[in-house]
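Researcher: Structure for this, please.
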Amino acid sequence: MGFYDIFNGDADGLCALQQLRLAEPRAATLVTGVKRDIALLGQVSPKAGDELTVLDVSLDSNRDALLRTLAVGAHVRYFDHHFAGEIPTHALLETHIDMSATTCTSLIVDGYLDGRHRMWAIVAAFGDNLPAQAYAAAAELGIGSNDTETLKDLGENLNYNAYGANLAELHFHPATLYLRMRPYADPLAFCAHAPELDTLRRAREDDLRHARALPLEKVGEHAVLVCLPQAAWSRRVIGTFANELARQHAKRIVALLVRTGAGYQVSLRAPEQGEAAMHLLARQFESGNGRARAAGIAFLPDSEVTRLRALLNKPPSPEPA
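Model: Predicted structure, token format:
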């Protein structure tokens, strides 16, 4: 019997796995990658009786691999908050999926574990740009303001590290960061013994300095847009910069377009004060996916930029509950 832990390389995926394995220790093969590498189940060739835990990657994007996995007789436990589409019903599949705009995978795991390692869920919520949820959970635990800001810094730096075109563009492999985190039930203790955070903090600020110098364009009444050059720093900072702009332009959609060949990689953020339906906007393009508050388009051809601008100026409404 083999065990696999399959997780997104961002703060949410890392902290979801951290909580789960603190509560349920188990040696497993780690399968992860850059944030946009979400088709992770296809990297595993399971056998009957194997057990796969999947965290923070879209079921819809992994549907074919999931069905193949179940067909060979492997067990799958799935935690996620991205667009899932139709969720299969199968005796070997256990799902914990909540696509609401106010949660993330680590908060779903936190509920599953009855809050046993909630401080790591707070780290993830900060990293996933859910500050209201993170601050509320920290206050409920009685965490002081300085320690809360330390958790925020940790979440944002873990999240920053996951962005890049490939693993070579990251400062640390996500699996390496997870293994460094794994011994620590208390994320504050991890912060006190993690020189990697200083590296990430300096690099994040340097990349943000480049991004903040770029012109920002208002798209009608509903959005702001920034075009970033084809560069490793652009790809690394796209998530962090999108979250920053979402806080600064609370009533507008944020669209970041990073040049890649004859098109762009796109990152979208919902207004902090407005409707959250970025997954619906992104999915109007061939390689678009994501969740209500944050979504992306893996490749937007130059010929589709005008259509994106039009949709930004008339954003979709959320799906009815």
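Researcher: Any notable elements?
Model: The CA atoms of residues 40 and 153 lie 27 Å apart. The domain at 3-200 is CATH 3.90.1640 (inorganic pyrophosphatase (n-terminal core)).
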